[in-house]
Every structure is written in C-alpha cells, then in structure tokens.
Amino acid sequence: MYAPPVFHRTLPSTGRRRTGVLAAVAGLVVSLLAIVPSAPASAAPSLLSQGKTVTASSQENYGTPATSAVDGDNGTRWSSAASDPQWLKVDLGSAASVSQIALKWETAYAKSYRIEFSADNNTWSTAYSTTTGHGGNETLNLSGTARYVRLTGTERATQYGYSLWEFQVFGTTGGDPGGPQIPGGGDLGPNVLVFDPSTPNIQAKVDEIFKQQESAQFGTRRYALMFKPGTYNNINAQIGFYTSIAGLGLKPDDTTFNGDVTVDAGWFNGNATQNFWRSAENLALNPVNGTDRWAVSQAAPFRRMHVKGGLNLAPNGYGWASGGYIADSKIDGQVAPYSQQQWYTRDSSIGSWGNGVWNMTFSGVEGAPAQSFPEPPYTTLNNTPVSREKPFLYLDGNNYKVFVPAKRTNARGVSWNGTPQGESIPLSQFYVVKPGATAATINAAVQQGLHLLFTPGIYHVNQTINIDRANTVVLGLGLATIIPDNGVTAIKVGDVDGVKLAGLLVDAGTQNSQVLVQVGPTGASADHSANPTTVQDVFIRVGGAGAGKATTGMVINNDDTIIDHTWLWRADHGDGVGWETNRSDYGLQVNGDDVLATGLFVEHFNKYDVRWSGENGKTIFFQNEKAYDAPNQAAVQNGGTKGYAAYKVDDSVTTHEGWGLGSYCYFNVDPTIRQGHGFEAPVKPGVKFHDLLVVSLGGQGQYEHVINNTGSPTSGTSTVPSNVVSFP
C-alpha cells in the first residue's frame, strides 16, 4: 500500500516518439448514446470496482497509479498528467447492471467530464456528462449495463492533472448473457508446497522433491516451494529440474534462511552445463559456510535474492558451467564465477566479482568491475536503460497477492530498497490455472478480466492462448509448461499496453507451429513506451522432451517490448533430436521498434538464431551456440555465405546497439564446417556493437570472422575466443 504522496505537481513532457495515448483519446470516434440519469436500481447495489483491473491515459508519478483509485483507501489517489483529455477505466470483470458512480475528488478535479459504458472495451456509450463539475464527493445515480466503465475528463478545474481518491462503481452482477463466470482465486494445487517456520520436517520434504528432480532433465513433474515470511534454521534446499523456490514476503529479507539454496552437479559427474530449468527468488540467505553455491547454466534465474555472504557459481570440483543470470539481487560478499563461461548480472548490488572466462556482462550493478573487455572480459554499463522486475506471488497477511514492480529507467541497484514501487493484485483477480484446463477456458478467463496464474504442471492446448487485454499478468509457477498440440501458436499478445509474461516454458508439439510465442500482431504500431510488455523467464524448447517442430520460436512485433531473460533452445540432446527431427529455423525474430533484450540466450537453430528487423533495438548480453548437428557445409550454406549468423541485423535497419555478445560453434557431426561469421549487420553510423566474441569449442568447426568480415578467425583446438571490442 502506498503512503499518501506529497502534493507535488510536475508538468508532463510533450515530446513523444509516436502518437501517444492522449492524442488517440482526443481523436477517438465512438458512437455515443446518451442515457438520462435515473433512480437507483431496486436491488441493493454492491461495490463492483474495488480491486478490479484499472487503466489510465497517464499518471503523474510512481506514487499516483491508476490502481489507487479503486483500492478502497481514501489516503491514496490516482492523478494524471496536466493536460486534456485524460481517462480512467475500470474493468468490472463481467457485465453488470450499474446503478451508481461515486467520485471522490482530490483538490484537482474535473470541471467537464463524462461517464462512459462499454460491453467490449471498443464501442462506448455516454451514461452521464457535465460541464459544471464541482469536485469534492459526487454521487451519480445511473442506469445501464456495462463491463467497462470509463471516466473521461475533458476540462480541468485547476492547472494540475485530474486527481481522484476513489472511483467507485456500484451495481449488481449477473447481466452477462455469455454464461457462467469463471471464479478467481482459490488454492494453488498440489504441486505448490507452502511452508512456514513451524512446518515439521521441512528438510525431509525438500530433500524428497530434490531426489525426484535432481536428474529429471526431461521429466514431467513440476514443483514450486514457497516459504512464508519468517526465519528458517538449518535448511539446505537443493534445487533440481523444474523446481522453483521462493519467499512469500514483499521483500527478500522478509523470508530468511539460516542455511543455503544449492545447485550442484553431482548428477552429471561435476559438469554443470546441463543444469537448466530451475529458479530461486525473493529469499535472504545466511549461508552455513559463508558462501552459497548456485552452479547453473541456461534458464535458471536468480532473482530478488539477498545473499548475506558470497555466491559460488561453479560446481564442486570446478567443472564447467555455461550460463547464468542474476537480477534485482544483493550479494554482500564476492560472486565467484570460477569456470562459468559467461554470465549476465542486472540491476543488483555485489560486494565484488571474482574472475571472468569469456564474457561477463553487467548493467546497473553496484560493485561491478570496471569495463575492461577483453582482459579481463568484463562489459559494464552503469545503468540499464529500461527495466521492470518480474511479478511475484506474496502474502499480505493471510491473503495471496501478486506484486507487479514498477518500470524503472536508467536503473541501478535493487528495486526493493525502501518501499517497493509497483502494484499489488489480489489472487481473486487471477484465474488459477491447473493441469487439465483447456485453452478455451483460459481465454474465457482473460476475456472476463482475470489475470492468469499457471500452477506447476504441463498444459496441452489445442488453440492459441490470446492475451488481448492491456496490463494482463500471465505468471507461471514451477516452470509451468505449455505445449501446442496441433501446430497452433501457444501464446499471442495483442497490440496493447503492459502485458507481463513470466515464468513459463513453451515446448514445441509434434506438429509444426509457425511460431510458439508471438508478442503483437503482424504490423503492430502502437506506442507502448510508457507501459511496455515484458517477457521474463519465458523459455522456448524444440525437442529434447520428445520430437517437436516450430519454424520460429518467438516473434516480437510490438514496439517497446522488454525481453528480460529468455532461453530459446533447439535441443542438441535428449529425445526427438536430429537435424530434421526437431527442425526449427529461427529462434527470435524482432520486428518491433525500440525493443530491448536484457539477457538473451538463443541456441542451435537451423538458420538464424536471432534476426532483428525493427529499428532502435538494443541487446545487453547475448549467449549463443550454433547448431551442433549440422550434417555438412551444404546444410548450413546461406547463398554465398558460409552459415547463417547467430545474430543478424537486417540491412534496412539504421539504428541498433549491442553489448557483450558471444557465439560458439561445436560442429561435432562434421568438424570441417566453416561459419563465415557469428554476427552480421549493416555498416552504418547508428549500428554499433561493443565487446563481441566467437569461440570454436575444441576445434569442432571454425569461424572465419567475428562480425561481417571483421575479426580474426578462430583456429586450432585451444578454444580461444576471437574478440572485437568495437564495431564498426
């Protein structure tokens, strides 16, 4: 809950890259049907709007979000930018008979405004309008049916923006002719294990899960281990495949282990290069021996953690590890990568950093080593241009909620110092999805106005999950896995603001999907810079758990999207693996403008692993391996070019920038294969790359250049990188 902010006004910037929301509202043509205010409905009305999904044309600052107008707290408020028109819209979740609107204005009120109703968030009718608003508390008795209710202010009474303590909609539900409503909330299912400090035999239960999951690389079980706020003594939570561990406090320090959260590689003879698909979030650790061990590779995020000691990223015995991602975390001691080949750390605080192998990249990290690529191989940005941390489940008293952190610009350090900034959404506003749920039911829940919380499990879908409602949160627990059964796209996001996709594994089905995850329709053009869609810990897999095919893993069409940690993987081992068996030509295709990738891992696709066609894209850290199983040079030949680049920027692009990017080859089927370059980009002043490298792993195939025709070839079997510090 926000404390009431200080009454302070700042005029908004009028400069926008694309046509903004306000201009769109001003130019909106709708069919308006006046409804004369009438007496209240005879049935006793209920408060329908409190805690519901709410959006606004703008907000004055982080302390005055739209949600404050429907939170039931007369000490918090929504306030807009200081311009006309502005709007506030609440989604009631289903059709309702509206009988009354109560407006509780702050000093900055509307002189002229209208109340509008809609059944579909598209066609609007005017239920009430005035040019003589008096501010204070206004009660409007109306009559009409609506799912969406919007207040549109057209003339302010002060020089400030519009400001409401509360926007309350009263009425009765049951007016939806579409059938029964899907309930929100409920229990979290059998695969979410919730502990408190008094729970008996915690260690034994955690050990039991680990025994099942330690080597179950392509198994079907999924688990989330959730710990209520408090202190837990003598815990060593070993984390295996498809297991997430998390605290249920609002901050990491609310849930403290006097003990460890451990990932090691005993199951794989001390080699951590296959320690995938697991996570740790929102906990404070006092490691027993002073240093916690988190020896992982791809798809194993370490988020919102506070380690009151050191962090060792290598397995016992210092065997290889090949990946890694830390965000929004504080490590009081040293982070020691040892044998980790590459790592990305974002918006965190560390005591120090131990060493580097090929590519260690930092953005917004307090305590990060200075820029020094390639000796040592540190790429360091003082800030992250734009970031918004991943949503997470927490307990507010005895009530589950999902906290959605606020967007930050030029971020540095953790987001949870002081009062966390963001929005809390009650679990009652989520459809808690459990195995067996159909895509039709999931889509109906979204259309009804619910967010989605996928409990741990595997979900087969025979139609696309469509997320067309702005600000929808889609959060998976325990590596919840979605598999399209008949060649459909698993998830599509509309050209809308603020969707959050997080914590999901999308596994290709046996029938080829053209795309597995698509953010935005083809030709998307709306400006989402104020409220971008985020894709966080969303992983793609083609093959490995069985034969699967997809032409492209992920397509980003929406402008301003943030891709924050993804691993798109065409399997090189497991079941259903072969050059044509798990065919997937492209990993990531970016068509939108102003897309930012922070922590991009893409591997083994048959052609381009990443192809970037949108303008003003940015990537901070890229890790890639070309497809191991290419049968011969002809199979990868790209016209006159030897092989498809790991990361290609289209010739039409005029502005693009990347930092800390690496591509590796291991053509073990035919070690004579030559890759012309790892990276390909037009030579233009606005296209810039910093700290690039290519590596031949043990001499199994070679690169001739790093980017275009720049950079020395790799050679021999010594696995020594070829580096380019700056391009062009």
> What percent strand?
35-45%
Overall number of strands: 51
Using the coordinates shown, work out and report the CATH topology of one domain. Answer: Pectate Lyase C-like
- Find the CATH superfamily of one domain: Single-stranded right-handed beta-helix, Pectin lyase-like
Features:
Pectate Lyase C-like; mainly beta; 728 residues; 16-stranded parallel beta sheet; twelve-stranded mixed beta sheet; Jelly Rolls; globular; disordered N terminus
Description:
Pfam families: F5_F8_type_C. Residues 55-67 have a biased composition (Polar residues). This is Discoidin domain-containing protein. There is one protein chain. By secondary structure, the chain is mostly beta strands. Among the domains are: 46-173, Galactose-binding domain-like (Jelly Rolls, Sandwich), CATH 2.60.120; 192-388, Single-stranded right-handed beta-helix, Pectin lyase-like (Pectate Lyase C-like, 3 Solenoid), CATH 2.160.20; 626-727, no CATH class. The chain is built from four helices and 51 strands. The strands form seven sheets. The protein has a 16-stranded parallel β-sheet that branches. Strands 30, 31, 32, 34, 36, 38, 40, 42, 44, 46, 49 and 51 form a twelve-stranded mixed β-sheet that branches. Strands 1, 2, 3, 4, 5, 6, 7 and 8 form an eight-stranded antiparallel β-sheet that branches. It starts with 20 loop residues before the first helix and ends with a strand.
Detail the topology: elements first, then pairings.
Blueprint (H helix, E strand, L loop, with lengths): L20 H6 L19 E2 L5 E4 L21 E2 L6 E20 L4 E9 L6 E6 L6 E20 L6 E11 L18 E4 L6 H12 L9 E5 L2 E9 L4 E5 L7 E8 L15 E4 L2 E2 L5 E3 L8 E2 L2 E2 L2 E3 L12 E3 L2 E7 L5 E12 L5 E8 L11 E4 L2 E4 L4 E5 L2 E7 L2 E4 L10 E5 L3 E4 L5 H10 L2 E4 L3 E4 L3 E3 L5 E12 L6 E3 L6 E8 L5 E7 L14 E9 L7 E7 L5 E9 L15 E5 L5 E8 L6 E3 L4 E9 L7 H4 L10 E3 L6 E10 L8 E2 L3 E2 L6 E10 L5 E2 L18 E6 L1
Parallel strand pairs: 9-10, 10-12, 11-13, 12-14, 13-15, 14-17, 15-18, 16-19, 17-20, 18-21, 19-21, 20-22, 21-22, 22-23, 23-24, 30-31, 31-34, 32-34, 33-35, 34-36, 35-37, 36-38, 37-39, 38-40, 39-41, 40-42, 41-43, 42-44, 43-45, 44-46, 45-48, 46-49, 47-50
Antiparallel strand pairs: 1-8, 2-4, 3-8, 4-7, 4-8, 5-6, 5-7, 25-28, 26-27, 27-29, 49-51
InterPro entries: FA58C (IPR000421), Galactose-bd-like_sf (IPR008979), SACTE_4363 (IPR059186)
Organism: Streptomyces brevispora
Protein name: Discoidin domain-containing protein
